[in-house]
Write a structure and sequence with these properties.
It contains five helices and no strands. By secondary structure, it is mainly α. Among the domains are: 75 residues; 118 residues, Helix Hairpins. Helix 2 packs antiparallel against helix 4 and helix 4 runs antiparallel to helix 5. The chain is rod-shaped.
Length: 288
């Protein structure tokens, strides 16, 4: 009790000796400072939170701008690819037009040649008619009758001569082989064209996937940086699926290229055999 009494007396003396100054241990001042510090900390916390939200909003706008820019670039790439495809088709059509013009020039030359031959035949017929008229003027009726009888006898004798116009078996066999080679050439050519079209389609699909993958990877990185792990997971699955599809298409494309190469070599061999057979057949027909 004496100890606490002395302590109270000391505190009373200290209280009377204290003046209003900072730092102060006066209860009103202390409570006010506590409230003031609390409000300052709350204000600082709100300002920091507002700044973070502003930065997040700005980052979201930047990401959105990047996505829009990447989408625009993809569209530009697709447009450029379409333009290149149309340009290639135009070049092919121009080549076809040039080939048709060259063929038309050849046909016109043949037409002129045939027209000249027809005119020569007409002149020959006219000259033969003139010769026949001159001959009839020189030969008597009795001589003409004897000539006619001699011609009839000659024709009757010629009908009794045994001969056949049927082609020999070797030539028929060559003709059958020619037809078989022609069918094989058409079938192999169709296979080569089909393989080339499939290869072109697969190349386009692989190219489309290769175009999509960088954009998906960039979107995935943006989702990870923005803590959108669900979206990042979906993008990862899509990237994995596209990569697997791309590998499968590339394997199929390699197989088709090998098959197309074999068909091209087979077609070349068939054409060489067909050329030799055609020459042999023409020689046999000319001999017959």
């Amino acid at each position: 009790a004496d100890k606490f009494r002395r302590k109270l007396e000391e505190l009373e003396k200290e209280k009377k000796s204290l003046k209003f100054q900072l730092p102060s241990r006066h209860p009103s001042i202390s409570s006010f400072l506590d409230r003031f510090v609390t409000q300052v900390q709350a204000a600082l916390h709100w300002a920091a939170d507002h700044r973070i939200r502003h930065e997040e909003t700005q980052l979201w706008h930047e990401n959105e701008h990047k996505l829009l820019r990447s989408t625009y670039q993809e569209r530009m790439q697709v447009s450029a690819a379409r333009r290149n495809q149309l340009f290639q088709e135009k070049k092919w059509l121009q080549k076809e037009i040039e080939d048709l013009r060259a063929r038309l020039a050849i046909l016109e030359a043949k037409d002129q040649h045939l027209r000249r031959e027809i005119e020569e035949q007409d002149r020959l017929i006219q000259s033969q008619d003139c010769e026949l008229t001159a001959l009839l003027g020189c030969v008597s009726l009795r001589e003409l009758q004897e000539i006619s009888k001699a011609v009839d006898d000659t024709l009757a004798s010629s009908y009794q001569i045994p001969f056949s116009l049927d082609l020999p078996g070797t030539i028929k066999s060559l003709q059958e082989k020619e037809q078989s080679f022609s069918i094989s050439i058409k079938e192999t050519t169709a296979k080569v064209c089909t393989s080339q079209k499939l290869c072109s389609t697969l190349r386009k699909k692989v190219s489309d996937i290769e175009t999509q993958l960088p954009a998906l990877l960039e979107a995935k990185m943006l989702a990870v940086s923005g803590s959108n792990f669900g979206t990042a997971k979906d993008l990862t699955e899509e990237i994995r699926s596209l990569t697997s599809e791309k590998e499968g298409l590339e394997g199929l494309l390699n197989e088709l290229l090998v098959l197309s190469t074999r068909n091209v070599r087979k077609l070349e061999r068939i054409k060489e055999d067909y050329t030799r057979l055609k020459q042999e057949l023409e020689q046999g027909e000319a001999t017959f």
